[in-house]
Every structure is written in C-alpha cells, then in structure tokens.
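Replying to the earlier thread about multi-chain prediction with a worked example.

Input:
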Amino acid sequence: MKIIILGNGVSGITAARYIRKLSDHEITVISDEADYFFSRTALMYVFMGHMRRKDVQPYEDWFWEKNRIALLRDRVSHIDFEAKTLQTSHGKSIAYDKLILAVGSQSNKFGWPGQDLDGVHGLYHWQDLEAMERHSRGLARAVIVGGGLIGIEMAEMFHSRHIPVTFLVRESSFWDIVLPPQESAMINRHISEHGIDLRLQTELKEILPGENGKCRAITTSTGETITCGFVGLTAGVSPNVGFLKNTALEINRGILVNEYLETNQPDVYAIGDCAEIRQPQPGRRPIEAVWYTGRMMGKTVAHTICRQATAYNPGIWFNSAKFFDIEYQVYGEIQPREPENLASLYWEHAGGKKSIRLAYDRHSGAITGFNLMGIRYRHEVCEKWLHAGTHIEEVLQNLGLANFDPEFFPQHESELVAEYNRQTGKSLVIKRKRGLPAVLQFLNKQHPSS
Amino acid sequence: MQTESLSISVPSPAYTSAKQKIAIALSGIGILLILVVWAAGRAVAPVPVSLVAFGFMLAGVAVFVREEYLKHPEGIKNNGAWFRSLTARGVWGWLLGVLITGFYVCLYWFPQYLTGLIQLFDPLSRLLRGTAANQWFVYGTFYTAAVLFMGIKFIYKYRHNPYQRLRTFSVMFFQLGFAFLIPGLLLRLQQPEIYFTYFWPLSYYQGTPMAYQGYSGSGLGAFFFFFGLAMFFIGTPILTYFFGKRWYCSWVCGCGGLAETAGDPFRHLSDKSLKAWKIERWMIHSILAFVVLMTALLWINVATGKSIFQEYSQIFYKTYSFAIGSAFSGVVGVGFYPLLGSRVWCRFGCPMAAWLGIWQKKKSKFRITVNGGQCISCGNCSTYCEMGIDVRAYAQKGQDVVRASCVGCGICSAVCPRGVLRLEGADSQPPAVLSRTL
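Result:
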C-alpha cells in the first residue's frame, strides 16, 4: 500500500513513524517547507542562539532512509480525490492508496492595510524565521501585534538580540482569554520587567509603507504612529487549507474529520493543526493547534490505517508554555472568568513569579483544573485526580505528589492549604511531600478514591 | 572545523555592552599578566603580581556577573551561545583551546618552560605547604581558581535554581578543601600529599604497588589506600544505587567540578550523534579494562618478584600514564573544552566514570523522569547535555532516561521550557498511564 503524507511537521512525521512501526507500507512525506522534520515550537531558540537548525531536528538525517520513509521536497498544487492522485508544483503526478493531510496552520491576517508589505511576518514556518533574521540586522524597533503565545515568543526573540519591542495587545491584559486575571497580571508585570513596551488595549490600525515596499511604521487604535522596521503578526493561526478550498473535500474552518480522523473523501485523513473534529470530546475544542494533539493524531491515524479503526482520544486537556522566564502548565479546565458552579483556590508567591490555582466544583468539591505559574506539576498525578473527580480536600492533602520541581526547590503546597484553611475555617494539613516513590504507589493503585 | 552556522543567513554578531567589554578587559589583563610571567620564564615580585592578576580576573568575573545576570530577571541565560566566537568554535574558541592545550603540554612534558609560573606561586606554596612550588602546585592553583571563579559565575547564572546553586557550592568546596588546602597542609605536616576525593582508577597510581609502598610508614597513607579500595568496591555501588553517579561526578569530583564551572560555557559543544554514543561505550570500557589489567600486572609482578612480566608491567603503566593519564585526561580533556565540550574525558575516557556508569545503568534508583505528554521535542535538553545524551529522544517518548553516562548535573531539567524532566530516585519505571498521548 502506498501512503502519502502531506506535511512533515509533528503530525505527519508521527504518523509516518508509527505506520513504519506497524507495517511495511510504502511511505512518502511531502513538504515544501523543509528537507527534514524540525520542532516548530523550537524556532525561537534558533533565533536566540540557544540551538542550531540541526539541534531542533529530533532525528538525525540517516533516520529516514533507515526507516524507509521517503522525503520529497515539493508543493502539492492539486489533489484529484476521485483518481487518488496528487499534482505537485514540480509537475509530478503521484498516486496514493491512503492520503494523510497534515498541512498545519498559517498565521492569521485580519485584512489590515499593509499586511503584505515586506517586513511584515508571522511566526510559524521556517521561512518566517528566515524573514525575521533578514530584517533583524540594524533593526531599530519591532512591533508585535497579538498577545498570545507566539506574540510573547517573538518579543523574547527580538529582546534577546537587544532589539526594542513594542507589543500591542488588544485585550486589557495579556492572554486574558485563557489566563485568569491574577496569572495574566503576573505576565504583564514580567513582560514589562524585561523592558518590553507593552501596550494593552491597543490594536493595529494600519501598516505604513516605506521605500521598496517595506514597512516603515504602524498606526494604532489609540492614534499613535510607531516607527518600526518589522511588524510581527501573531494574532493566532488558522488551518492551512486555502489550496483545498473548492474541492470535494469538506472544509469548515479546518478539514472536517470524524473521530477516526477520516475526511469525507475515502482513504483521506486529516491530522494536526489543519483538522477540525466534527464532534470533539467534552472539554476539547474542534481545532487544537498544539504540539501534542498533532502527535496523538499522528499515532491514532497510523493505528487506523495499519490495524483497526482507532478513535482519537486526547483525554483531559493539558498544555504548557514559557513566558520569558516564567513557566506555565495547565491540566484540566481553567476558565479565565470563574463560572457560577466552579470555585478556585489561588496562591501567589510573594515574589510575584509563582502561583498555584486549583479549580473545583463548588457543590461536589470535585477537582476540575490545575493552573501553575513558575512551578511544575506532574501530568500523570493531576490527570488521575481530574479523571476521578477527586475531592479538593483530598487533593490538597496529597498535593505534594503533584510537585515536579527539581530537588531542593521550595515546596509551596502547604501555603495553598493554609489559604484554603483560611477561607473555609478547616485545618487540613499536607500529608505528602514531593517524591517519586510515593507517586508510583499512588499511580499504581487500582481504584482511585474519588 | 566548521561551525554549521545558524543556517539562516549569517548570524548577527552577539551584542556586547560597554560594561561587558570592561569585564572582559579586566579578566584579560589578569590573564595577560600570567602569560607575561609564563613567557618571561621568571617572576619578579611574585606576591603583588599574582595578587593583582587574580584580583583582576575576579573583578572581571564580578563585573560580568553584574552585567550579564544580576541586571536582568533570573532565568535561563543561553542567548547567543551559538553566535559567540568563544562558545561556538569561532576564532576565540580556537585560541583559548590552543592556549590551554599548550599549558597542558608544558605541564606534563616540558615543565622547564613553566619556571616563571612556578616562581610566581612559590610564596603561596611556602605559605600553604611549607615547601617550594612545582609545576603541579601551579596547576592546582590555576585549577582551583578556575573552579572558584567560574563557579561563582555559574551560581549567579543559575541563581533561580537551588539544585544548581547547591551542586556548584559542593564542587567548589571539594576542590578548594580536598584537592587544594588539605593536600597542601598534609605536606606541611610531613604527611603524604593525599587527595581524598580521587580514587583508583581515576587516580590510577592510587591502586598500584608503588602507591602502597609509598605510603609505608604513614598511617594516614595506609588508611587512604584502603579507603580508596573501599570506595571502589563498596562505596561506589552503594552510593550509586541511591544517588546515581552524581554523588561523585557532578558534586564531588575535581574533573567534574572544572567541567561544571569553567566548562559550562562549552557544554553545548558535545556530540549528540548515535555514532558518538557508540564510540563512547567502546572507548570508556576499553580504558577501564586497560587500567584494571595494568594494575593487575603491576601487582602480579610484585607478588612474583618480577619473575613473569619483568619490565613489561612498567611499560604498560607508562603507556597508560602518557596516553590516558596525561594526553587524554589533561590535554584533550580540558584543552579541547572550547572545541569538543566540557566532558570529553568524563564521557569517553574516565575509568571511574565507566565503573560508576555500569552501576548506574544496572543497579540504581537514579533516573530522569519525563512529565507525561508535555515534551515539545524542542531539543534544549539534548543540546545542553554536556555528556552528549540525546535526552529528547527519551523525553518525547515519555521514557525514563537511564544512561550510564549521565552525571546528574540537572541542566536538562533546568533548560526545559515545559517542565518535563526531573532527576529522581525510584526502583521502577512509572506506569505508562499516558501511553496514548505519546
């Protein structure tokens, strides 16, 4: 069987690796972006000089031939779903038995005047990184538009090269559509602490052209003109499906797929950023452009193709990021504004760079989410509590089990318990401290208490 | 050697502020003074000159720390590691490599060219040890200064990380106390000059009949001889079972101490390829076999009154001493820091590391665990692993890292942007509750 995978990001490559593990099928991965798979999430570190290109490639170059995964550097211009054939821009015609679309995202552009000028770029593809590099020499100021994960990464990137950054955020606080107010405020402070010119409640109005079709300045919704040689557009990403529009493939925002990641076309699957799940599981969204969902979908689709139909099951939501120096982890659902039925217990370190938040059901007491800033929690432990809907008080008393910070780091769980006691008049105490042996005992227990 | 550059256009020059330049200039003056004395072959006014030289170096470190670390929020400071000439195998890196290599070559084989430096540290030697300086005292002084000065720098670089602070304090303590002050004071008290933190087979002489005979008449010497043996046969398995190799390699050992402090700016230069790992396993175990065989021959020779091997065992010993003890551990091991990274000796050569590694791999609680499905395969862990372990290969599979070479420095865990790695101890692999996520 001949399997073609479009896209060599984490989704496509994971699919290829697992198909190879499970079968002897012929595998070809087509990408126009790069010869070899690299970690998209690590692009920033290449720019900052932490790593070279080869360091962000998880597999050595010999890996592909050894595993009989053919790599083709080309762009697919047309797909004939009836004839099961692809046309590439180099004029090749390639037949497939199974086709996996893992074509990723593209940076959002919301029709701003001047958005296609030279020096205006998102940060998603390797080519975006090259563009940033090209424009960085002698750059007096960069303006970044969009207060999310990519925007703050881009701010950190330019900052590492001592290039002044103005950071426009539409919302009244950084990423407050995801982060609760206290955590969001913490990141506002931290962004400013690094000397970034953070402009909250400020939108991009227009990008002004200079010589040779290059951007010269921007104007903002507050009526200001800011001179800059680079504009970063980081207001989110959306599925890269432009070239598939007006085909028989059913597309909404992304390529629509069922729980087996099958599209409406026979033997065609879509995975990763470009896929839109018709009926997502509770607590999950139809399109989730995060690293691990791509990896899970790649593995799932490989099983579906090589073994039996396997439903995509991402489990309980989790994610992580790093905002300059502050690490962020989330397990379960954390709402930016508390819904009626949920309560949240929040503790923040006096230094203002660490916090713990537990969300739980006001009535039943069941734990619903963990939000961590500057503190690491163990995925498996949080997931087990969330899955079982463990009572907040049991979680609190055993919270040491979740702590994943390195040895000798202070453990702040008792301070969170004290906060709970203060609010409720109870006198709970921490029963467990950090450490793997107790964690293993907890995880290996057959019947989780709930 | 080509530095595969950033791949994307030409990397822009790393930014250096005026005050950072002052810091470099201050240290540069200190180093220059030492070089002048080295070149002159004699030291004039050794006390003021050495004080001024070390004073300038320390002042340089202080200004650098203030500018580079204290003026900025605490966090990971690897910006520009692959851009800077010194840390990316550029001209400055090569020059530094040549300088250190040259020093080691003189130290081992041409000490007559170190006369100036020996004179320079003669007053310190008389003060500490009550005897004249020799090239080994010069070496020990430089070594200790490097661990202390660069250790201070490292502690500030990782000031947000208690594990790194404590670990660095530990290597500084053991270097200054057990590898510099105590051996010197013992000499002053007319005792054998004992380095309590170096055991056979890293200190290959310690296990030989020559060492044993040399200690005769000294209770302390005899104690140390048997203490060293006990550390090899009993201490290593027990301590490694509980703590992994790190009880020694990244907390106590002097070679490790230098690598973790002076070598830290070069840790990313280690080779991460599968081929390098293959060479490593073959090489380090061969050297362990070599030192065991060599030591055995020497003892058999003594026991049989030189009737079997005659002079061959001595030839064997001299070969090891030259090729491994000097050329590899010193010249290549440290001289090539700016080219091959800071742990070349520890990874490819050290027989003690091989022995510890066998125990760590086969019978130890120590492992680096992976936090569920949080890994984003970015590669920071692998890049900054001084031992060249491809940590990411494990992290992205959700598999515990159990590797013979891991020294437990904890930098992979520190540089991970997603909180994925933790050094810990337990007897079994955590259940793969998240297998579906990987």
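Residues 278 and 291 of chain A are 20 Å apart (CA to CA).

Feel free to reuse this layout for your own posts.
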